[in-house]
Automatic annotation (TrEMBL), chain A:
Entry superkingdom: Eukaryota
Ranges in coiled-coil conformation: none
Native species: Bemisia tabaci (Sweetpotato whitefly)
Protein's name in the database: Coatomer subunit gamma
A Gene Ontology cellular-component term: endoplasmic reticulum
InterPro entries given in the database record: ARM-like, ARM-type_fold, Clathrin/coatomer_adapt-like_N, Clathrin_app_Ig-like_sf, Coatomer/calthrin_app_sub_C, Coatomer_g_Cpla, Coatomer_gsu, Coatomer_gsu_app_Ig-like_dom
Localisation: Cytoplasm; Golgi apparatus membrane; Cytoplasmic vesicle, COPI-coated vesicle membrane
Stored Gene3D superfamilies: Coatomer, gamma subunit, appendage domain, Leucine-rich Repeat Variant, TATA-Binding Protein
Pfam families reported in the protein's UniProt record: Adaptin_N (PF01602), Coatomer_g_Cpla (PF16381), COP-gamma_platf (PF08752)
MF term (GO), any: structural molecule activity
Automatic annotation (TrEMBL), chain B:
Keywords linked to the UniProt accession: Cell membrane, Cell projection, Cilium biogenesis/degradation, Cytoplasm, Cytoskeleton, GTP-binding, Lipoprotein, Magnesium, Membrane, Metal-binding, Myristate, Nucleotide-binding
Domain of life: Eukaryota
GO CC list: axoneme; ciliary membrane
GO BP term (any one): vesicle-mediated transport
Taxonomic source organism: Bemisia tabaci
Protein name: ADP-ribosylation factor-like protein 6
Location of the protein in the cell: Cell projection, Cilium membrane; Cytoplasm, Cytoskeleton, Cilium axoneme; Cytoplasm, Cytoskeleton, Cilium basal body
Xref: SUPFAM superfamilies: P-loop containing nucleoside triphosphate hydrolases
Listed SMART domains: ARF, SAR
Length: 881, 187
């Protein structure tokens, strides 16, 4: 609706009156707020402008924001309802930008408890946005009253605000549980839904309490369909944690299945969606859920058809057989007047269909691909990508289709997804490489997206030199140097250098081109051309390897931090890049996301971090602990957290191993789950194995229930490398104080000492190695032949593995190194394979491994290691023994 | 009454809003004073103010908008943001709090020397509040303790009051109304 109206306005030429706003002049206008008497109409418009600007991403400085905020406080004089409600919005937007925002606390509490119902809900929301932990106590009483208020809007606002407040003061909000319980029996659909959200959030970490809540609610039906939907999600989360019991045995699942027959369509859909997404769903449970979705497919309501086909599309990969049952309905949807539905229907059919139907379906898509939005074009592209993996022989048709899509109009995200798909097809399927590169070359001839052009040029530089006829790519690349913007020209120069480095017969021509580029008007382009020209024309071939073929391995965020620090503290010494941590490449086989994960209305969502970012944030965290300063050099690698307790015990302990060049920091994260105890002086006793030396321990002073704290132990690695792979016994030690579960205050001052046995902790080879991506492994291997490298070779029979795939997986995990040249993918039907790996051992030592595998009784492996020292090479060969 | 009614119609005060700022240390009784002045159905239970609060009341047909400021230390520096656009100031003093009279003097000094008040003939009404308390100082003693007589470029007036019962408030507000009217007439 709203969308349509906007469009209409555009056509009317009415336009957006806020379109050309300028921050400084709007803030100037905000001085009107100081005038007496207040002019509500005028001030309302100015406030709208301010809100518009902020929502467009305009940045307000602290002083600007604070001034505006103070001026806004003067508007409380006016009793104009519209203006007052705008003021609430203004307070919410500025609350995070301005200083001293709590000065409106009293004004807002007055409105929140006053008689004017139109004010109350909005005042609560504004109040909660300005309140910090210390002020929360002062408004607690009002919040409790508001939660149980008879006015549904007020109650809902208070509940939702409580949910947001858990972020700053979880334990205060916990005390509102009785009020939330009362709100749960409300007749209002929203209030009931929000109350359940708050109750669940309060009890989330206490599995037993959640189970109780759920058991109670699944028996006495909730009125609100939204609350039931949320309940279904909670139930699914419990089911996922339940372990391997068959779903049909579980009373919780019974509830979900019953919801398939609920009278509200929303609930029915939620239940069906839940069932198909559960990890343990078998065809037996699937059938009723899919038939519900099938029914929805022929519903007259587009929203239901859309929801159904979208869900079927998602599960098409995990349960193809079940989705095939809906094929007829999906075929009908291909001609749906809603193009989004049609697209999803076709792509679902593509995912489940046979190779023979691919051509027909692709033809059908092409009839309307120009009519659908970019977002759905991306869905089509993803379907094509899946198809290519499934039917490698079809790559010709599909690639043609993709290149036609590339030529069409479209935004960056859409074009990037096409390019990604072509790139992944090239990588998966050697037969498709040359055609794929040709399509991409053609695309960059007319590509408006700089970032994409740069990526493709990089790819050409990497793959082009290793094709049958490298020279054919040079023209496309050099054209960019003549025609494009500076950023693209730089990338083109770098790509040409790759050809020069790897194809000796092209080198003279490349040198001529690079010499021309030295006249470029852009500094960076000229610098690069000069740099590459001199390296390539020089007489030191190892430079060509180090500076052109092999690329920078350090982690970019860490490099940035190190450089900032270097610039901030000038020293006469040169910057030493070897102190910057190496970044591990991102894992390639990320399992498809969005399946089986149940995300319950969680206001504090966590973004998954890339390895480089995670390592960098660990480095910052460790550096901020005064007891550990100075850190023993720069952080080399942090392991994933290792669980040292069973998951549902009194204390949950995880360990992260931070590896430095000669030291190891063990970080134990401890979660106290006992609601009636307070832990103090928490430490970890380690039985350190031979060779290790404990240098420092940092205890955790105190942990109340639900809190997580960390204990750190700093160790020195053994001199003798072969001792570094070892096992530690570990015990948690602490002082326990019993306390009142409601207030969290200890009953007595006296506590008693206690210990808690943890599982053994292994320090592995892979903890001391980071993965390194070698673009050209062969060149690196040859390079490691001459220079002070040691080579060690050994042969093993891996008796415990039965297939080459398994052997590859195990070796990669044990050594913690990066497979190169896609040698971790096994071509079908082979009985021998060579796995190539690259990594870096702590201390910055490059390590290369070649493992020749052959399938006989078990798997025979001949492993060759090239490393800068004998000791490292031995450690690595022995790790597999 | 008759006189005031005439005055207000004369200067068209009937439709006019008058804006005053209410300041003073915390716990001096500012919110209690305003609460008493408000009409019966607007009354609230008084609690320490956080930041500021806007209150409205009528006195003899003149509509007052009062900014009730918090007197807590951390909010005192907020007062000055509101000096520029008020027509009068009500300064509430707890007359039984001898100890903090020095603090009152300091805050008053800051107020008088602020650029936004210095050149203006802003009328200041002092309430020597809590006169019912046993060890309360008289309004005369407070005036001399605060050295009020040195204020020459602004009209000022001090009355003893009991904000809980409402005693002494009307007298003060009447004086303030008159002063503000005079200021307007001179303009
Ligand atoms: N005995 C007596 N008590 C008073 C009088 N005026 C106010 N109080 C009491 O003094 C206390 C503080 O009054 P408030 O009106 O909250 O003081 P305030 O100046 O607004 O304080 P802040 O908002 O914190 O700056 C309350 O308990 C009042 O009941 C008075 O004239 N006599
Ligand atoms: Mg007050």
């Amino acid at each position: 609706m709203a969308f349509k109206r906007d469009k209409k306005e555009e056509e009317d030429g009415g336009g957006n009156i806020f379109l050309n706003l300028e921050k400084t002049s709007v803030l100037q206008e905000a001085r009107t707020f100081n005038e007496t008497p207040v002019n509500p109409r005028k001030c309302t418009i100015i406030l709208s402008k301010i809100l518009y600007l902020i929502n467009q991403g305009e940045q307000l400085g602290t002083t600007e924001a604070t001034e505006t905020f103070f001026a806004m406080t003067k508007l409380f004089q006016s009793r104009d309802v519209i203006l007052r409600r705008m003021v609430y919005l203004g307070i919410k937007e500025l609350s995070s930008l301005a200083e001293d925002v709590i000065i409106v606390t009293s004004s807002l509490t007055k409105d929140m408890t006053g008689k004017e119902d139109l004010y109350r809900a909005a005042a609560i929301r504004a109040l909660c946005s300005i309140t910090d932990g210390s002020m929360l106590q002062a408004i607690e009483r009002y919040m409790k009253q508001a939660i149980v208020d008879r006015n549904a809007a007020v109650s809902s606002a208070a509940l939702v605000s409580s949910l947001h407040m858990t972020r700053i003061a979880g334990d205060v909000v916990k005390r509102w549980v009785n009020e939330a319980q009362e709100a749960l029996i409300s007749d209002n659909v929203m209030v009931q839904y929000h109350a359940l959200g708050v109750l669940y959030h309060i009890r989330k970490s206490d599995r037993l309490a959640v189970t109780k809540l759920v058991t109670k609610l699944t028996r006495s039906p909730l009125k609100s369909p939204f609350a039931v939907c949320l309940l279904i999600r909670i139930v699914c989360k419990l089911l996922e944690e339940e372990g391997d019991v068959a779903l049909s045995e579980s009373p919780l699942f019974d509830f979900v299945e019953k919801c398939l027959r609920h009278k509200s369509e929303t609930v029915i859909y939620e239940a069906a969606h839940a069932v198909v997404n559960l990890r343990r769903t078998t065809p037996r449970e699937l059938a009723p859920a899919v038939s519900v979705l099938q029914l929805f497919c022929s519903s007259p309501k587009p929203a239901l058809r859309f929801a159904a086909v979208r869900t079927l599309n998602k599960v098409a990969m995990s349960h193809p057989a079940a989705v095939t049952a809906c094929n007829l309905d999906l075929e009908n949807l291909i001609s749906d007047s809603n193009r989004s539905i049609a697209t999803l229907a076709i792509t679902t059919l593509l995912k489940t269909g046979a190779e023979s139907s691919v051509d027909r379906l692709m033809k059908q898509i092409s009839t309307f691909v120009s009519e659908i939005s970019d977002e759905f074009k991306v869905v089509v592209v993803q379907a094509i990508r899946a198809l290519c993996l499934k039917f490698p022989r079809k790559h010709g048709v599909l690639m043609n289709f993709l290149s036609a899509m590339l030529r069409d109009e479209g935004g960056l995200e859409y074009k990037a997804s096409i390019a990604d798909t072509i790139i992944s097809i090239i990588e998966e399927n050697p037969d498709a490489k040359e055609t794929g590169l040709a399509h991409l070359c053609e695309f960059i001839e007319d590509c408006e997206h700089t970032s994409l052009a740069v990526r493709i040029l990089h790819l050409l530089g990497k793959e082009g030199p290793r094709t049958k006829q490298p020279s054919r790519y040079i023209r496309f690349i050099y054209n960019r140097v003549i025609l494009e913007s500076a950023v693209v020209r730089c990338a083109a120069v770098a790509a040409m250098a790759q050809f020069g480095a790897s194809c000796p017969d092209l080198l003279p021509n490349i040198l001529v081109l690079l010499a021309r580029c030295q006249m470029d008007c852009d500094d960076e382009t000229r610098d690069r051309a000069t740099f590459y020209y001199h390296i390539l024309s020089g007489d030191q071939p190892q430079f060509i390897y180090h500076y052109i073929v092999d690329h920078l391995q350090v982690s970019i965020p860490s490099l940035e931090r190190a450089l900032t620090q270097y610039v901030a503290n000038p020293t006469p010494e040169q910057f030493d890049i070897s102190t910057v941590p190496v970044s591990a490449p991102e894992p390639t086989n990320v399992p498809e996301k969005g399946h089986g994960t149940v995300d319950i209305a969680n206001p504090v969502a966590v973004q998954p971090e890339t390895p480089a970012k995670a390592a960098e944030s660990y480095a910052v965290k460790l550096a901020s602990i005064p007891e550990l300063a100075p850190l023993p050099g720069s952080l080399f690698r942090s392991s994933d957290p290792v669980q040292l307790t069973e998951s549902e015990t009194e204390y949950v302990v995880k360990c992260i191993k931070h590896c430095f060049s000669d030291h190891l920091i063990l970080q134990f994260n401890i979660l106290n789950t006992l609601s009636d105890t307070l832990l103090e002086s928490i430490g970890v006793t380690l039985e350190e194995p031979e060779g290790y030396e404990i240098l420092k321990e940092v205890a955790c002073p105190k942990l109340s229930c639900g809190e997580t704290g960390s204990v750190y132990v700093l160790l020195k690695f053994p001199e003798d490398l072969s001792l570094s792979v070892s096992t530690f016994g570990a015990t948690l030690k602490f002082v326990v104080k019993d306390c009142d579960p409601t207030t969290g205050e200890p009953d007595t001052d006296e506590g008693y000492h206690d210990t808690y046995m943890l599982e053994d902790l292994d320090v592995l080879l892979s903890d001391q190695v980071v993965r390194v991506m070698k673009g050209n492994w062969g060149a690196a291997w040859e390079q490691a032949e001459g220079e002070s490298f040691f080579e060690l070779e050994d042969t093993y029979v891996l008796t415990s593995v039965t297939s080459l795939e398994q052997a590859i997986q195990n070796i990669v995990v044990f050594l913690g190194m990066q497979p190169a040249e896609r040698t971790d993918r096994l071509p079908q039907g082979k009985s021998a394979h060579t796995l190539l790996l690259a990594g870096m051992f702590r201390g910055g030592h490059d390590v290369l491994v070649r493992a020749k595998l052959a399938l006989a009784e078990g798997v025979t492996m001949q492993i060759t290691v090239r490393a800068p020292s004998q000791e490292i090479a031995e450690l690595i060969t022995s790790a597999l023994g | 009454m008759g006189l005031l009614d005439k005055l207000s119609s004369l200067f068209r005060l009937k439709k006019r809003e008058v804006k005053v700022l209410v300041v003073g240390l915390n716990n001096s009784g500012k919110s209690t004073v305003l609460n008493h002045l408000k009409s019966d159905d607007d009354k609230i239970t008084v609690e320490p103010t956080v930041g500021l609060n806007v209150e409205k009341f009528k006195h003899n047909n003149v509509g007052f908008t009062a900014l009730d400021m918090s007197g807590q230390v951390r909010y005192r520096e907020v007062w000055e943001h509101y000096y520029s656009d008020c027509e009068g100031i009500i300064f509430v003093i707890d007359s039984s709090d001898r100890l903090r009279l020095a603090v009152v003097q300091e805050e008053l000094e800051l107020l008088l020397q602020h650029p936004d008040t210095v050149g203006k003939r802003l009328p200041i009404l002092f309430f020597a509040n809590k006169m019912d308390a046993r060890d309360a100082l008289s309004s005369v003693k407070i005036a001399s303790a605060l050295n009020l007589h040195r204020i020459i470029n602004k009209p000022w007036h001090i009355c003893a009051s009991n904000a809980v019962k409402g005693e002494g408030l009307d007298e003060g507000i009447e004086w303030l109304t008159q002063q503000i009217c005079e200021n307007i007439r001179k303009e």
